[in-house]
Specification:
Largest sheet: 2 strands, antiparallel
Shape: elongated
Distance between the termini: 9 Å
Number of helices: 11
Number of strands: 2
Structural class: mainly alpha
Mean pLDDT: 94
Order of helices and strands: HHHHHHHEEHHHH
Low-confidence stretches: none
Length: 159
């Protein structure tokens, strides 16, 4: 297996979007799902999220009702105040952050509510779960700004 060059991964990802689309259109689900835990771990042994934080700088997770309840309690805010202060409803009717970067992203790229962060944040970038193949458009989009998704797709493409 070849070593994945993470030096210019964004350009490589842009160049490989057609391949990713083709691969994600009809993957061997059982084979892919079997490989994901190992590839996920491998990716995060090579990639430091704190050096990047592109997800937090450019995109918002969905803040679901349990997230809103948990985070507002943690911040000692009424849920309505938390929502009014930090969130908007998007076109899908989901609560998302009003601003980018995420209002909870510190200058050091650490999340100031890490222990209470939304479930979308805990699960992102979905490289160890079936979302990777169940939502191919999301996976492709994520591959353009997350080096871990790029890495996993490149490794899956080798096989």
């Amino acid at each position: 297996m070849a070593e994945i060059n993470l030096e210019n991964w964004q350009q490589q990802s842009a160049d490989h979007q057609k391949q990713y689309k083709h691969f994600l259109k009809n993957p061997n689900k059982n084979k892919v799902l079997k490989q994901l835990p190992k590839l996920h771990e491998e990716a995060f042994n090579k990639i430091d999220c704190l050096a990047c934080a592109a997800c937090c700088k450019n995109y918002s997770p969905r803040f679901k009702t349990p997230d809103v309840k948990r985070i507002s309690k943690h911040l000692k805010l009424k849920e309505s105040v938390f929502i009014d202060t930090y969130l908007n409803l998007d076109e899908d009717g989901d609560y998302v952050a009003k601003s980018a970067p995420c209002p909870f992203l510190g200058e050091d790229n650490f999340c100031t509510i890490y222990e209470e962060r939304p479930s979308d944040c805990k699960r992102f970038p979905y490289t160890d779960e079936d979302v990777l193949i169940k939502r191919p458009a999301l996976t492709q989009k994520n591959s353009t700004f997350c080096p871990a998704v790029f890495y996993v797709l490149e490794k899956l493409g080798e096989k």
